Amino acid sequence: MIIIGFAAGLVCAVLRRKINEIRADDLVACLFIAAAGALLGGKLFYMIQGFPQFLELARETGYTVLEYFRDAGLVYYGGFTGAVLFVLMTAKLVGTPVWAMIDTILPSIPLMHAIGRIGCFSAGCCYGLPCGFGVYFDASPFAPHGVRLLPVQLIEAACLLALFFLMLRYGREKRPPGKVLAFYLTGYGIIRFVLEFFRYDAIRGIYGIFSVSQWISLALIALGVFFWFWYPCAGRKKASS
Q: What stretches pass through the bilayer (predicted)?
């Protein structure tokens, strides 16, 4: 499902490339390199979250870091961070305006993510709270068996598809730097923060009253507000000086 999501996002970005005057070959190169960054970042975040468990397992069984990297799952926020960093690097290397590349790719992200969440539902990971109208994931090696669990993966996929169509509408014309990014950071930050209350998988990690993903979501919402309200003003001041 991740591969299908990537293919759908690639097609969407290629079809939208003329809005920001991006060459197709530069865009495709950025997307494939971003995929590598997403894989690396997603695994590294997963490893960081589960590092105490890894140390315990390493002491008991001799489990190595390379084995841990091979077996590690993917954390979305880590994948998103890795993808953005690799896009920035690649855009600089190919000589493409960074904001133009980001604005072209970003509306594809919730589409890719939505399809990926359907894969989470199929695998039974990232499951929701026990509830009477939930789904049994008895064939899954990740979820508890014999209990109905809220299919929060499908709820998030639906929310992401709505965000995708909203971003398509907003991004159908060229926007000032930072605006499309602000739309995404704020929109997805809110979606993830709310849905985390309905998640039940312990691997997320809880710090204080919120999960790790909720703390990151709050930071992204704040960053989105910054890009929405403050960043254009900063750019105008710099230009006028």
A: 27-48, 74-102, 114-137, 149-168, 180-200, 206-231
